[in-house]
Amino acid sequence: MGGARKQYRNLGGVPLLVQTLRVFERHPRVDYIVVAAPEGDTEWVASDLHTRGFRKIHAVISGGTSRQDSVAAALGATPPIGSVSSDMDIVLVHDAVRPFVPAECVDAVISAALQEGAAALALPVSDTLRTVSRGVFAETVDRERLCRMQTPQAFRRVWLEEAHRAARSEGRDASDDVALVQHIGRPVVLVAGSPLNIKVTTPADFELAGIIQSSFERTSFVEP
């Protein structure tokens, strides 16, 4: 998808990022939002979100060169523990280009993290999976123990901070925060995700998002 960054492309008349943030802005158990924006975008993104009426934006900070760096930077910008509600010891990590996570999924992953310490949304794999060698199908992969990860992922803040410190000290990079938290020996429980919670990364994804958007707004939240 050339041109503007994916999170800034319009969906339903507003940037994809705005669609994504609305879910958390309107959720009663979310107190503060920290946005990790590309370097150089922070001022205008913060101004735009303020103009659009977002009240929970605590900070818009420059992200890093990797997802892990961006999460670490955002984690460092969250309010101190004890400065907000009792749920503040739980931190949610969410992709900017997943605009359709249902509010009940956010609620479920928060509750699971409060009880177990760490949780993440995921869906079971329903397709047949096979490995490929030189363009030819090889063995079938057992899908019974496989799932497709989604966000938000939710963690006790102290666990996530410890996981990022360990990753920095060991020079490790991971594709998501579940892997980082597992590395320090903490279990992460699965919470059922939603087929609506797609990640918009390709032109085909964007077309599908346009179809989902109108019904999602009607059945989820009203315009602020």
Question: What's the structural blueprint in terms of helices and strands?
Answer:
Elements (H helix, E strand, L loop, with lengths): L9 E2 L2 E2 H11 L6 E5 L4 H10 L5 E6 L4 H10 L13 E4 L9 H14 L1 E7 L4 E5 L2 E6 L5 E10 H14 L6 H7 L5 E4 L10 H17 L5
Helix pairs in contact: 5-6
What this model shows, in words?
The strands form 4 sheets. A 4-stranded mixed β-sheet has the order 5-9-6-10, with helices on both faces. A two-stranded antiparallel sheet has the order 1-2. A two-stranded parallel ribbon has the order 3-4. The protein has helices at 16-26, 42-51, 67-76, 103-116, 157-170, 177-183, 203-219; strands at residues 10-11, 14-15, 33-37, 57-62, 90-93, 118-124, 129-133, 136-141, 147-156, 189-192. The mean pLDDT is 90. A hairpin with a 2-residue loop joins strand 1 (10-11) and strand 2. By secondary structure, the chain is of the alpha/beta class. It has one domain (6-219): Spore Coat Polysaccharide Biosynthesis Protein SpsA, Chain A (Alpha-Beta Complex).
Helical content (DSSP H or I, runs of 4+): 25-40%
CATH topology: Spore Coat Polysaccharide Biosynthesis Protein SpsA, Chain A
CATH class: Alpha Beta
CATH homologous superfamily assignment: Spore Coat Polysaccharide Biosynthesis Protein SpsA, Chain A
**Termini separation:** 29 Å
Number of helices: 7
Describe the oligomeric state of these chains in a short phrase.
single chain
Number of domains: 1
Radius of gyration: 18 Å
Instruction: Give the class from helix and strand content and strand pairing.
Output: alpha/beta
Q: How many distinct beta strands? A: 10
Order of helices and strands: EEHEHEHEHEEEEHHEH
Q: What shape does the CA trace take? A: globular
Main sheet characteristics:
4 strands, mixed
pLDDT < 50 stretches: none
Query: Largest sheet, order of strands side by side?
Result: 5-9-6-10
Q: Indicate the CATH architecture.
A: Alpha-Beta Complex
Report the mean per-residue pLDDT as an integer: 90
Strand content: 15-25%
